[in-house]
Write a structure and sequence with these properties.
This protein is α+β, with helices and mostly antiparallel strands. It has 2 domains: about 55 residues, Ribosomal protein L9, N-terminal domain (Ribosomal Protein L9, domain 1, 3-Layer(aba) Sandwich); about 90 residues, Ribosomal Protein L9, domain 2 (Roll), CATH 3.10.430.100. A hairpin with a 3-residue loop joins strand 8 and strand 9. The strands form 3 sheets. Strands 4-9-8-6 form a 4-stranded mixed β-sheet. It is elongated and about 75 Å long. It is built from 3 helices and 9 strands. The longest helix is centred in the middle third of the chain and has 34 residues.
């Protein structure tokens, strides 16, 4: 029996999909609990349109992520901080600071959880920070920390 899933069902499928399941499973479990309804032609068409719009959204997200990586490849992020004689910073450059700087470069807010920093930057010099963006895109940002003096 073909059913239109109203909600995500583990082991069967996600919401707004048409799936083929056994008649008993559909009649005795999915339909009474409101998880699915028998598939009609209108619902099949709606499910196909939803799948297409979802795919288009994923493509746009991936393209935007690739665009961000390209922007960051061409422009390193510069920070000025107070440092001691041996190049050790008195404070640190955190993921929130880096995310804010990336936001200025790309022109929109940037989520600090996309940065793969295991600890804050505490030394002068150039540092590379890995990025994990939406759409499965990975990249790298260069951070240059200079002394204020």
């Amino acid at each position: 029996m073909k059913v239109f899933l109203k909600r995500d069902v583990p082991g069967v499928g996600k919401a707004n999909e048409i799936k083929t399941v056994s008649d008993g499973y559909a009649r005795n479990y999915l339909i009474p609990r409101g998880l699915a309804v028998p598939a009609s032609t209108g619902q099949t068409k709606a499910a196909q349109e939803f799948a297409k719009s979802q795919q288009d959204r994923e493509i746009r997200t991936r393209e935007r992520s690739l665009q961000i990586v390209e922007q960051l490849k061409n422009s390193p992020l510069h920070f000025k901080a107070k440092a001691g004689e041996k190049g050790r910073l008195y404070g640190s450059i955190t993921s929130a600071d880096v995310a804010q700087a990336i936001g200025h470069v790309i022109g929109t807010s940037f989520d600090k959880r996309s940065l793969l920093m295991d600890r804050p930057i505490r030394e002068l010099g150039e540092h590379k920070i890995a990025l994990k963006l939406k759409g499965g895109v990975r990249g790298e940002a260069r951070v240059v920390v200079e002394s204020e003096a």
